[in-house]
Automatic annotation (TrEMBL):
It comes from the Bacteria. SUPFAM superfamilies: GlnB-like. InterPro entries: N-reg_PII-like_a/b, N-reg_PII/ATP_PRibTrfase_C, UPF0166. Pfam families: DUF190. The lineage of its organism: Bacteria, Bacillati, Actinomycetota, Actinomycetes, Kitasatosporales. Belongs to the UPF0166 family. Gene3D superfamilies: 3.30.70.120. This is DUF190 domain-containing protein.
Length: 121
């Protein structure tokens, strides 16, 4: 798959301990994004943060390090990202969903042929 030009970045900010049917919520989001044929998804674990509860979660305090912030980031075309949003409505009961316009400079899946001779993969 190749993707360049205007795109939409979807960021879902949730807690590491949030679950969906007894498995991590971030895992369910990634699997659904994959099932929807989106370009890709990455999960980033935060080291400190707070949300609507105003409780600071940090990796520096053992007692609060069990629910660190997690960001799931997906970039694809606006049409494909917006088509995916209803699934997030079902999954995310507490958290923050952010959409940002962005520009993809180059995205080529592994194993794809290079765009021109001499261009690195």
């Amino acid at each position: 798959m190749r993707l360049t030009g205007p795109a939409l970045r979807l960021t879902v900010l949730i807690g590491e301990s949030d679950t969906w049917h007894h498995k991590p919520l971030f895992t369910e989001i990634v699997h659904r994004a994959h099932g929807a044929g989106l370009a890709g998804a990455s999960v980033f674990r935060g080291i400190e943060g707070f949300g609507a509860s105003s409780r600071i979660h940090t990796s520096r305090l053992l007692s609060l390090s069990e629910d660190l912030p997690v960001a799931v980031v997906v970039v694809d075309t606006e049409e494909r990202i917006r088509a995916f949003l209803p699934q997030l409505d079902e999954l995310v009961t507490e958290g923050l969903v952010v959409l940002d316009p962005c520009e993809v400079i180059r995205y080529t899946g592994r194993g794809a042929a290079p765009e021109s001779e001499g261009e690195p993969e």
